[in-house]
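So, is this right?
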Amino acid sequence: MAIQHLDAAADRELSELVACTLNETTLKTQRERWINLGENFGIARHETADGLLLTFKDHPAVAAELEALVQVENDCCSWAAWTVERDEDGTLVMAARSQGEGIATLHGVFTKEATPWKRSSECC
């Protein structure tokens, strides 16, 4: 899958501390927003060597919500670089990339139990 970057945040330096700075209320809201987006527009989940890719149906409202979610993630979870990208077919892709312990943490999120995506180690 050829990926076109739409956000330069992936190039910034990542924090070594793997922790989320959201409080319980905002974490719950963020999780509910991710689940809602995934249930209605999520296509696939792929683990990569440096993180995770989630693909979504292409629609302007989906892109706007995905950008908003990624902005929050970049603020609260700076141990990973969260971007919205577009593959060659125009599918929206949320890419989360990290290093060290952050990679394993990303592989543990957005699993079938937490969201509608299947756990997959296949990469695009």
